[in-house]
């Protein structure tokens, strides 16, 4: 039975590790077998590792997983821990007896969220990456977990979100997003999410889009005027797609940020989307299928953004951002 998670796509597992004192963490998406992958980068301030190989003209087409982490560029160390775990279990690109796990990564900026970042000479992200990889499973926590532990938006606590869907031809699509946006996921200071038109069931509260006019909902509001925010996503399908086709899926999935956040693709955001295909569906995908996979990938990203904020729990730090649920408890807005 589908759990409305990226792991509804067969062959995908997710693991998270975080540290309350650090107020940061790591989330890993692992594939049971190497998956064809690509990437789209629309934000102006990315922190990336091993992402050049995801372009269609590069030789290595398949990856063992993706690594999302806090810690800004320090967090890119998390991939080393994930590689160590994968090497221990015999995974990786093989060449004449040598194996190198392929785990591209991206990091978000959470260095100013109130956690203790005084780690000295050795940032903790390598160890967090190892722990996240070794605990990867089909079911996993949302909200303030893993890479989403210390994430924030302009007005609310951010977090880790996920969602899934099925195309008209039966292909599964799933997304996982870490929401650390420079802007807002809600319409102004209300409880209504920008992603509300795409909500399924009451996966993020069921409050709907709200009235046509909401105070301040179209104003520019930024967490910072400097490059200090990031939204990271992984989208996966069980369709058999090429690297070039997945590049198109990643580009289309970027629109999910624009459906769920205001602003999106800002010069101070990262806004990365990794895209992968497990090819477990066992059916060929035509150009119409590719289009629907990309469309649903964008919608899953938007829904995952809202779920990440909706499921967040507060950070135990001074002056921490309120959560959506705390805002609801003090709001006069009703369904």
Task: Describe the fold and architecture.
- With about 325 residues, this protein is α+β, with helices and mostly antiparallel strands.
- It has one domain: L-amino peptidase D-ALA esterase/amidase (4-Layer Sandwich), CATH 3.60.70.
- Helices cover about 20% and strands about 25% of the residues.
- The chain is built from five helices and eleven strands; from the N terminus they run ββββαβββαβββαβαα.
- Strands 1, 2, 3, 4, 7, 8, 9, 10 and 11 form a nine-stranded mixed beta sheet that branches.
- Helix 3 packs across helix 4.
- The two termini are about 30 Å apart.
How many runs of DSSP E, i.e. beta strands?
11
Q: CATH homologous superfamily - what is it?
A: L-amino peptidase D-ALA esterase/amidase
CATH topology: L-amino peptidase D-ALA esterase/amidase
Low-pLDDT runs of 5+ residues are none
Strand content: 15-25%
Specify the overall morphology: globular
Whole-Å distance between the termini?
29 Å
Rg: 18 Å
Count of domain modules? 1
């Amino acid at each position: 039975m589908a759990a409305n998670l990226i792991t509804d796509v067969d062959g995908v597992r997710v693991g998270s590790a975080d540290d309350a004192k650090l107020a940061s963490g790591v989330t890993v998406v692992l594939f049971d077998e190497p998956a064809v992958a690509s990437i789209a980068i629309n934000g102006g301030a990315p922190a990336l590792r091993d992402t050049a190989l995801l372009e269609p003209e590069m030789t290595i087409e398949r990856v063992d997983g993706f690594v999302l982490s806090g810690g800004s560029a320090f967090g890119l160390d998390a991939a080393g821990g994930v590689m160590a775990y994968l090497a221990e279990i015999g995974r990786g690109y093989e060449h004449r007896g040598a194996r190198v796990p392929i785990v591209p990564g991206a990091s978000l900026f959470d260095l100013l969220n109130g956690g203790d970042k005084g780690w000295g000479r050795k940032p903790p992200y390598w160890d967090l990456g190892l722990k996240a990889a070794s605990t990867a499973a089909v079911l996993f926590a949302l909200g303030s977990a893993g890479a989403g532990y210390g994430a924030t938006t302009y007005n609310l606590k951010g977090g880790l979100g996920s969602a899934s869907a099925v195309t008209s031809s039966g292909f599964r699509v799933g997304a996982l997003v870490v929401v650390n946006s420079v802007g807002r996921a809600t319409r102004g200071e209300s409880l209504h999410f920008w992603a509300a038109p795409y909500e399924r069931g009451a996966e993020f509260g069921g409050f709907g889009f709200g009235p046509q006019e909401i105070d301040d909902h179209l104003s520019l509001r930024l967490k910072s005027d400097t490059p200090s925010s990031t939204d990271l996503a992984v989208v996966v399908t069980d369709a058999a797609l090429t690297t070039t086709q997945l590049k198109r899926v990643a580009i289309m999935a970027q629109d999910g940020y624009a459906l769920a956040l205001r602003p999106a693709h800002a010069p101070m955001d990262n806004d990365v989307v990794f895209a992968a295909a497990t090819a477990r569906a066992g059916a060929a995908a035509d150009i119409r299928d590719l289009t629907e996979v990309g469309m649903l990938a964008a919608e899953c990203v938007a829904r995952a953004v809202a779920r990440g904020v909706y499921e967040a729990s507060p950070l135990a730090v001074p002056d921490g951002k309120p959560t959506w649920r705390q805002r609801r408890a003090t709001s006069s807005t009703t369904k």
